[in-house]
Amino acid sequence: QVQLVESGGGSVQPGGSLKLSCAASAASGSVPRFNTMAWYRWGSGPQRELVAGIVGGGRANYADSVKGRFTISRDNAKNTVYLQMNSLEPEDTALYYCNAVDQWGVGSWGQGTQVTVSA
């Protein structure tokens, strides 16, 4: 069973930056290959929103609201995905979740890390 652990959340002022990390581990010690890794967030809206996703080859996609400000990257050797967030806005305040889908299509979620942007 895969576990995803997020870190790097916190409180910042508008215009600030944060970098989130999500590390995967497995009780068996063998972490599967992930086809896709992604960040979602749940803010004031009614449902979780896809923020950014990245496939194994490095191709990434972003929500329109974060394009040009956020950058997703992954280190396959470390089974870790990152989200660099710059020019943060109050509207980015949310609980950010990591998601990973392995080569068999099985998805895993982290517990979330809170990001708060306020003056």
Radius of gyration: 14 Å
Major sheet characteristics: 7 strands, mixed
Oligomer: single chain
SSE series: EEEEEEEEEEE
How would the global form be characterised?
globular
Structural class: mainly beta
Beta strand count:
11
N-to-C span: 40 Å
Unreliably modeled segments: none
Quick overview of this protein structure:
This protein is mainly beta. It is built from no helices and 11 strands.
Features:
11 strands, seven-stranded mixed β-sheet, single chain, globular, 119 residues, four-stranded antiparallel β-sheet, 0% helix, mainly beta
Can you tell me about this structure?
It contains no helices and 11 strands. The mean pLDDT is 95. It has strands spanning 2-7, 10-12, 18-26, 34-42, 49-55, 60-62, 70-75, 80-85, 94-102, 107-109, 113-117. The strands form 2 sheets. Strands 2, 4, 5, 6, 9, 10 and 11 form a 7-stranded mixed β-sheet that branches. The protein has 119 residues and is mostly beta strands. 0% of the residues lie in helices and 55% in strands. The chain is globular.
Q: Topology, pairings included?
A:
Blueprint: E1 2-7, E2 10-12, E3 18-26, E4 34-42, E5 49-55, E6 60-62, E7 70-75, E8 80-85, E9 94-102, E10 107-109, E11 113-117
Parallel strand pairs: 2-11
Antiparallel strand pairs: 1-3, 3-8, 4-5, 4-9, 5-6, 7-8, 9-10, 9-11
